[in-house]
Every structure is written in structure tokens, then in C-alpha cells.
Amino acid sequence: SIYSGQKRAKDISAAAGEELSRRMSKELPAFLKSYKDAFEDFKEKSKKHRYYKPILIASINNCWNFRDYVEKNMAEKDDNKASILSTLSDIENSGFDVLLQQLFAQLKPSYKKFTENKWDSSNEIMNEIIKNTSKHISDFRTLKDPFYHAIIEKIHARLVKEYIVRLLKRKVSLKTPAQQQNLAQNISKNAADLEAFCTSNGSQATWLNSALPKLAEIIRLQDVGAIKIEVATLATKYPDIRKRHMEAFLYIKANLSRSELKSILGYLSDSRASTPPAAPLFSNINIS
């Protein structure tokens, strides 16, 4: 309707086309907020609708048409542009959250198995997680490319985050270097499998790929000086990591003395960064 209305106005005169564009830019924010309200209403009240998931996906895809129109036809200084793009982001993210709820709920028991089994069956558990995730991803193939990549990256970030959460649960304490070496190898293998799976399905969130290998290396290392270097490198890559995260993680390394632990934790800060990271990882993890 917007495109055809604009074309007809331009066919009358350039001035009519410009005037219609100006008026539409004023009306579009209110229309999209109404669209958002209707979307939220459908999302909450129509969960048993036969085509619930396809309609959610179609609504997210619709946002791309509006984005495309706004980017091409509205000036950066137009106050309405930011409002429109913000509303579109709200609709998209709200839709993503619903589409992912079922997957994340289904994966929760699988992640608990890591610590319940003392990480002994971690490869089998990771294969189970990947298999279940793969089934859900097939439903998202009808999303337009930008949205498909966005939802895959959300999945990638959640899979890495939940794995880290299990490492920070203080459920496993290993006293010997051999035990720690074995766990480090398991984590490295799980990390490689997870990265390969997410990348093959279109994730471009390469910033996530070093988190688990770095943690595995900290477990493997026995020299305190080398551990400090690895912790400092991890903190540079993920500036939202805090002492409480590392302290919970180092519970795994039961052969560290209290003074060594304090020395290692000295490389991290509990203060908030002046600017939060563009893509947070550890700040989304609460330590109980």
C-alpha cells in the first residue's frame, strides 16, 4: 500500500510524492505500534493456532519490508526513523524469544547431565544437544536471511552460555593434573563440535568461539604464571567476566592454594566496564 500510494503520488507530481512521503513517515510509527500490539496479542492468546509458528515467522519477515522502506526513503535526521526501527526490533526480538522458548526448555535437562555425570559422558551429551537443536533449526529456514542468521547467532550464544553455566556450578572439584587434563580435553572436543555445528548452520558469531577453548586451557595449565596470562587474555576478549565467575570456575582446580587463587583473581575486576560490551556473555550469567 505504501509503495503503490507513493508511486501514484509521484505520477501526479514530484511535490505530491514528497508530501505523501512526509505524511507517511508521521503515520508509520503509530501504525507499527498498533501492529506490535496485535502481534503481542496473537503471540499470547493464539498458542494453539494451527499455524502459530509460521504466522510468527511471517510477522518477523514482514519487518524486513518495513526496514527496507524506511532505510531507502527516510532521512537519517527524521525523528520518526529511530522510533520505527526500534519498534521493528521489538517485534523481531519478541518473535525470536517465542520461537526459541521451546528449544531452550527442551535443552535444559540435557545441560544438567554434564554435571550429574561429572563430565564423563560429555561427548554423548553434546551430540544429544546438537541433535535436538538441529530439529528446531529446520523450522527457521523460512526466515529471511538477516533474521535467520540473527536467530542462529542467538542459539549459538545460548548454547555456549549454558555450557559455561554448568562449568560454574561448583559441582566438580579435581585434585590431580591428570583429571584436569581429561576434563580440558572433553571441553575442547565439545567446543569444537559446537562451533562446527553452529558455523555449518550459518552462525557468524565468531566472537563466541574462543570462550570454551580458553576455559579448557585454564583447566589444563598447571603453572600459575601461565594461568594468569590465559585469564588476562580471556578478560580482554570477554570484558564482562568478573571475579565471581572465575572464582566459581577455578573451584574445578582443587590443587590451587588460597594464595595462588587470590593471585589469579587479581587479574580480574569486579567493577563495571565504563561501556558494556557490544555482545555480552558472562554478564548474562548469575552465580548462585
Automatic annotation (TrEMBL):
Q: Name one GO cellular component term.
A: exocyst
The molecular function terms in GO held by this entry are:
SNARE binding
Q: Which InterPro entries match?
A: EXOC3/Sec6 (IPR010326), EXOC3/Sec6_C (IPR042532)
Signal peptide segment: none
Q: Give the GO biological process terms.
A: exocyst localization; exocytosis
Instruction: Please report which protein family the annotation says this sequence is part of.
Output: Belongs to the SEC6 family.
Q: What is this protein called?
A: Tumor necrosis factor alpha-induced protein 2
Give the classification, highest ranks. Eukaryota, Metazoa, Chordata, Craniata, Vertebrata
